């Protein structure tokens, strides 16, 4: 195709947007609404996934030590920190343990005074694992370290969080898939109505000798342009609203929000997925959908 023909056909496609503005606005409005719903479902799934993962990662594995010498504790410390999948280690001396429980029970008794001369607690390590799925394997490795008396790991809770995370992932991404299918059906029907209203125009172009590609291309440009405009509108609304929600969530902390990490997934971590997905959706649905919907009207 020559450049002059290309620019002419692009100009015709843009002209058709203005000439058929009512149907253009209708298809853009439907697509924008569908994109907003898909974006909201995606962000909900991402944040629930993050919150479940955050709660699951707060579970600490406690490694209780035998009565050991300083050298043995130092060797165990190095072994614990070098264990695969361990991302955090906090050492608690007998005095630290006594102080911790003393603060918890200060309204009932003075433990530090009671055990001033005979501290019954042994040193321990509070170990954080990178993923709840790895807690069981890490616990088994920790038990093999010399000087470790026992390991208390929240295995049942880890299994619960892992299962919950999987269920939420499937549910939210299933909603996105359903909304995407609904969008495809609705937009294709809208496009077919648009093309049907202009079937006479297509027939006249065919009768005067225009090729199928020559006829299709302005419709393709028209569809791509309306799809990209819809993607830009939806991206701006979703990203703007989500940014405002993130600020409000951070500026209005509550006990519930703190339990879930105190923040939402930052916009900079997800905006490119939203914009890229909307652009792809707009291009495929409107551009290719418009070009293929006129196929049966080309047989004149």
Could you explain the architecture of this structure?
This protein has a four-stranded antiparallel β-sheet with strand order 2-3-1-4. It is elongated. It has two domains: 3-55 and 160-298, no CATH class; 60-153, Alpha-Beta Plaits. Helix 1 packs across helix 9, helix 2 (21-57) packs antiparallel against helix 7 (155-197) and helix 2 packs across helix 9 (212-251). The model has no long low-confidence stretch (mean pLDDT 77). The protein has helices spanning 3-19, 21-57, 70-81, 94-104, 111-114, 135-143, 155-197, 199-207, 212-251, 255-259, 271-293; strands at residues 61-65, 86-92, 124-129, 148-152. It has 300 residues and is an alpha+beta fold. 70% of the residues lie in helices and 8% in strands. The protein contains eleven helices and four strands.
Topology:
Elements: H1 3-19, H2 21-57, E1 61-65, H3 70-81, E2 86-92, H4 94-104, H5 111-114, E3 124-129, H6 135-143, E4 148-152, H7 155-197, H8 199-207, H9 212-251, H10 255-259, H11 271-293
Antiparallel strand pairs: 1-3, 1-4, 2-3
């Amino acid at each position: 195709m020559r450049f002059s023909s290309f620019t002419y056909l692009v100009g015709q496609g843009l002209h058709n947007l203005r000439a058929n503005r009512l149907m253009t606005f209708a298809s853009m409005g439907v697509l924008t609404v569908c994109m907003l719903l898909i974006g909201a479902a995606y962000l909900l799934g991402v944040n629930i996934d993050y919150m479940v993962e955050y709660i699951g990662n707060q579970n600490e594995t406690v490694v209780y030590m035998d009565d050991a010498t300083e050298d043995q504790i130092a060797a165990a410390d190095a072994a614990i920190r070098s264990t695969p999948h361990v991302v955090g280690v906090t050492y608690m001396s007998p005095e630290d343990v006594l102080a911790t429980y003393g603060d918890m029970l200060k309204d009932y008794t003075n433990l530090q005074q009671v055990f001033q001369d005979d501290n019954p607690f042994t040193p321990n390590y509070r170990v954080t694992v990178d993923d709840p799925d790895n807690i069981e394997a890490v616990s088994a490795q920790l038990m093999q370290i010399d000087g470790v008396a026992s390991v208390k790991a929240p295995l049942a809770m880890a299994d619960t969080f892992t299962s919950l995370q999987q269920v939420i992932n499937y549910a939210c991404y299933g909603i996105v898939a359903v909304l995407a299918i609904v969008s495809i059906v609705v937009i294709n029907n809208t496009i077919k109505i648009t093309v049907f209203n202009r079937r006479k125009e297509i027939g006249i172009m065919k009768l005067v000798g225009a090729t199928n590609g020559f006829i299709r291309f302005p419709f393709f440009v028209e569809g791509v342009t309306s799809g990209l405009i819809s993607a830009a509108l939806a991206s701006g609304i979703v990203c703007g609203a989500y940014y405002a929600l993130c600020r409000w969530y951070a500026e209005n902390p509550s006990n519930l929000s703190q339990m879930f990490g105190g923040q939402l997934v930052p916009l900079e971590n997800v905006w490119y997925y939203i914009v890229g997905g909307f652009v792809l959706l707009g291009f495929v649905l409107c551009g290719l959908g418009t070009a293929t919907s006129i196929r049966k009207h080309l047989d004149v």
